[in-house]
Amino acid sequence: MLKDSPQHYGSVTRAFHWLIALLVIAQLTSVFSSFLWEHNAYSLLILPWHTTIGVSVLTVMAIRTLWALSQLSRRPAHEGRLQRLAIAGHVIMYALLILMPLSGALMTWGSGYGIHVFGTAWFEGADAPWAAGFGKLHGTFAWLLSFMIVGHIVMAMYHHFGRRDDTLRRMLGRKDPG
Ligand code: HEM
Ligand code: HEM
């Protein structure tokens, strides 16, 4: 099923979730591993694509947000305090997934480099110190997002192996065996 239902996330929501997870984990791990081990083969492979991957995340996130809003009333219910906290966590992640590439794009544009996606200049550089200033936030957003993602994965594991409920299965697209 394409659309969400109270029992499962539909294939569109799942495709958005796992595509963004893959791209964002590639972005974060390629930068952080280059801090620990400069010029490692993995970072050398991914980092030249940092802007292209980041702009792709921004574009896909804009569409994903509209899709999520259209599915709100159909999605699995989140009742109780802990579940409402999970929803708040998801909203914060949506905000960071948009602010993260937006701050990177404003930084490179405002410091004169322009924004090059798949080898083409989407925007020529400008001398805009207000935009370049977003570079300071880019690193802070990256740490906040990393923290949220680690907590998110820990909670997914807790649901699956601790509480043995179907929270992970409904995002993997597998039927509840019970
Ligand atoms: C999902 C999207 C993105 C993620 C997760 C991400 C992640 C990161 C991280 C972790 C850093 C290192 C920060 C630090 O020095 O502490 C970084 C640096 C950087 N990012 Fe991104 N980024 C994203 C999108 C973008 C985009 C769209 C652009 C440009 C259009 C961009 C341009 C840069 C630049 C130029 C640096 C180097 C900044 C510096 O050394 O001060 N990033 N990014
Ligand atoms: C960059 C990594 C990730 C990000 C940014 C992320 C973000 C999100 C967001 C925003 C949601 C809310 C549903 C939606 O609108 O799509 C969600 C749901 C979910 N994610 Fe992730 N996710 C990531 C990685 C993972 C991983 C690696 C796992 C599993 C190990 C996972 C398991 C889940 C599960 C089980 C749900 C459903 C939670 C529920 O129904 O309450 N996520 N994720």
Lay out the secondary structure.
Layout: H1 11-36, H2 41-46, H3 50-71, H4 81-110, E1 115-117, E2 120-123, H5 129-132, H6 135-162, H7 167-172
Antiparallel strand pairs: 1-2
The structure holds protoporphyrin IX containing FE (2 copies).
One protoporphyrin IX containing FE (HEM) binds at residues 24, 27-28, 31, 50-51, 54-55, 57, 100-101, 104-105, 107-108, 115, 135, 138-139, 142.
Characterization of the model:
This protein has about 180 residues and is mainly alpha-helical. Helices cover about 70% and strands about 5% of the residues. It is built from 7 helices and 2 strands; from the N terminus they run ααααββααα. The longest helix has 30 residues, at about 80-110. It starts with 10 loop residues before the first helix and ends in a 6-residue tail after the last helix. The model has no long low-confidence stretch (mean pLDDT about 95). Bound molecules: protoporphyrin IX containing FE (HEM) (2 copies). One protoporphyrin IX containing FE binds near residues 13, 76 and 153.
